[in-house]
Amino acid sequence: MDKSWMHADRRSKEFELGFEEFLKFAESNAVNIDKISCPCKKCCNVDGFSVEVVRDHVFYYGILESYKVWRWHGESMYDNGVESESESESESVNGDPGMGENDVEVGESEDEEMSEDSNEFLKFVEDGDQPLYNGCDHTTKMNFLVESFSWKAKHVVTDSCFGDFLELVKGLLPAENLVPLTTNDAKKTLSVLGMDYEKIHACPNDCILYRGDAVLVDAEECPSCGVSRWKLGRDNIPTKNVPAKVLWYFPPIPRFKRFYQSPKTAKNLTWHDWGRKKDKMMRHPADSPTWKLLDSKYPELGNDHRNLRLALSSDGFNPHSMQNSLYSCWPVILVTYNLPPWLCMKRKFMMLTLLISGPKQPGNDIDVYLQPLIDDLKLLWNGVEEVYDAFRGEYFKLKAVLFWTINDFPAYGNLSGSVVRGYHGCPICVDQTRPRRLKKGNKLVFMRHRRGLPRHHPYRRQAAAFDNTIEEDLAPVPLTGEEVLARVEGLNCEFGKREESTPRVRIVDDQDRPCWKKKSVFF
After folding, report:
1. In contact, 344 and 335? CB cutoff 8 Å
2. Which helix (H) or strand (E) segment is 330 a member of?
3. pLDDT bucket at 87, cuts 50 / 70 / 90
4. Is the Cβ–Cβ distance between 133 and 148 less than 8 Å?
5. Strand bridging mode 384-389 / 351-358
6. Which one of 130, 138, 220, 419 has the minimum C-beta count within 10 Å?
7. Helix (H) or strand (E) holding 394
8. Residue 115, CB-side half-sphere exposure with 13 Å CA sphere
9. What's the rounded Cα separation, in Å, for the pair 91 and 100?
10. pTM of the model
């Protein structure tokens, strides 16, 4: 069946004739003609309407071009020789016309061909390609699992409710069907995809993680603050095996390996070398001085263009969307800058690594929760052996480096350890910030921004237009990484939130105010 009309302009005659054939096909296979799945870009086959409404939606919003196999409208996925468990959801992306001389239109498939190196994954694919039950020709075991978990996440269904749903579906289908009986069985099946995670117990006061040392793993209470590891019941009695706080950790290394087991993704991860237009214009992080500095300073990293350059992003939000709810959730996400600009910020390539949740935000104690991620980043810096590149058909040693962090100013202070408010609130000027406190409002203002202007700029001498002073000083020179490390080397910071027995002493003298509050875990 010709489906090329799906990519045509929906105002054209080709699209109109093709879509009418589609509607006839959908009507002939519909169970309920008044509720046909709508393939428009807004509904995405989730909602069902009459033929007239579907026609209006498609001509108004456009059709979902990645809908290759019309399985929601009666077409079997085996009719066109499709062997995968789900249709190839290609995502054609048009890049910037000036991105590169060798730019191509990149199509990313959700079920791209994987390398034969991953025997475990191939076994999983073969098992997932089996029909859901004998005689089933419209879905497979893998397809059912993916769509059911998508439904579970969309409607916030609990594990117990989802288990009852699986049990109900298994009983309704013919005997010897492949529907998992429990939620755990379904999760174990999908864990082969590299979506495994670790639940690490944490101190409720953010002092430590119960990991690493054998004594610490088996501890019943925090050795730093003495608070119980377990959740307190109604009578303030610890409930055994119910942790008070849990860190969810999603290891990135297996997922990076999975990147390179896909030929298309493995090729796109080296786009910055072969597809980027190199004309000294800033179009990609590979054009930045930082990228070039690392390539020249560490040749073993820059010589292989498959090595990854990463950015870390983190911020807190309230998942309950209520102002009065005392709950905070901090995701930590890795972004891969090797990819083209139109792909590196796609959701499928933004990698969730940590999920820190609890009644209080981690604040300055976020270093405690970053420890497992930092350990994996150190492994990636030294190199991970035996990573298979499916595009080139060879094994190589994968390395990665963390370039930057992406965050707002308060989160910047938590991650870097820099003081971001008060007399030394500027992380660039540090002890040369020179703020001024207002007499009436008693607030600090920063009026020395004219120092950044050229030496003979006219604004420097316009005293009346600013604060009645003529600016003659030059802008402070930012500290290098070595200078920052030398300043924070001797800082001792105890992590954890404790009730202070004595009130804090307010420092009056400006020169005694610190510029950093801790040595960051990134050092």
Report:
1. yes
2. strand 328-336
3. very low
4. no
5. unpaired
6. 220
7. strand 394-398
8. 21
9. 20
10. 0.71
